[in-house]
Design a protein that fits this description.
The chain has 226 residues and is α/β, with parallel strands linked by helices. The protein has ten helices and four strands; from the N terminus they run ααβαβαααααβαβα. It has a four-stranded parallel beta sheet with strand order 1-2-3-4, sandwiched between helices. The protein is globular, with a radius of gyration of 17 Å. The model has no long low-confidence stretch (mean pLDDT 96).
Length: 226
């Protein structure tokens, strides 16, 4: 955010309900529509329609928001694909069955990311400095079990309902959660092409080459006159 601000953009970070400093309720029962409502509330409070930059689950929320609404532009980073989270669900079932079982027994997603090893495998490059990694790991929290089912099958995006918003889709070559083919398929659904950053993992905004991602976004916005 400071980097984008230095380029002249006013920046705002949304915290969904039950996340970070937002009001707390019942995390496990949150639905994607609730997060869309949170996003809508923030956008409605801004004086101008924003350029939306959304990562991972945030990309799913952004896609749902854009069904019937328009923004000047949207950037999706390592987004949940239009087909949902089937691939990573199957991956966790086969590669980490105990963590997967615990998540389903407790109706909590924290068990699938709750150890440094699991978190690094899914989100970060192997060569991330240890001190930096542990700082990020300390901030990882639970996510809604019901929202997972929305992202799995119950509330998938409908790209044909999203019209008029220019979209840039950026992916990570070494994304441990969403395969390249699914990101490319998502881009095609929105009549664009996915671009991938080599040597980068899922959490693109904290990877060592994050500035290359930021510069690509700024360059694209410049092409759009934004």
């Amino acid at each position: 955010m400071p980097y984008f601000a230095s380029q002249g953009y006013d920046c705002y970070a949304l915290s969904y309900r039950d996340h970070a400093g937002s009001e707390k309720g019942k995390m496990r029962t949150n639905r994607i529509k609730d997060y869309v409502a949170d996003l809508s509330q923030v956008i409605d409070e801004l004086s101008d329609k924003p350029i939306l930059v959304a990562h991972s689950m945030g990309g799913h929320v952004a896609q749902k928001y854009l069904e019937g609404k328009q923004l000047p532009a949207t950037v999706l980073l390592a987004t949940i694909p239009t087909v949902g989270v089937w691939w990573i669900t199957q991956y966790m079932l086969t590669r980490h069955p105990l963590a997967f079982l615990k998540a389903n027994l407790t109706l909590s997603l924290y068990p699938v990311v709750g150890t440094p090893a699991l978190s690094k495998e899914l989100f970060f490059s192997a060569d991330i400095p240890e001190a930096e990694f542990h700082e990020y790991f300390s901030k990882i929290q639970d996510e809604s079990y019901f929202a997972l089912w929305d992202m799995l099958i119950l509330n998938l995006p409908h790209p044909k309902k999203a019209k008029g918003t220019p979209m840039l889709l950026l992916g990570a070559e070494n994304d441990g959660i969403f395969p390249r083919a699914q990101e490319e398929r998502t881009a095609r659904a929105y009549n664009t092409q996915a671009e991938f950053f080599p040597g980068m993992a899922h959490d693109m905004m904290v990877e060592k080459d994050w500035q290359k991602v930021a510069d690509r976004i700024i360059g694209w916005l410049g092409e759009k006159g934004l």
